[in-house]
Amino acid sequence: MLEMRPDCERCGKDLPAQLPGAFICSFECTFCAGCAETLDDICPNCGGELLDRPTRDRDLLQKCPASTQRKHKA
Hints:
The chain is α+β, with helices and mostly antiparallel strands. It has two helices and three strands, in the order ββαβα.
């Protein structure tokens, strides 16, 4: 199951699990749309392709909550 990380690792922007706009690689490194675009959709951590992260319905978030651990690297 995806962690659904709460923020962009590059700029710190909030990325709620129930909303579109997050991009992830196969290791779940997470970036906002703006940062993913400036990275040419390539993860700077592993070199993997950044793809749209699926959303998680609010009802499912009750049962399977998203991660609260922020990964922004200032």
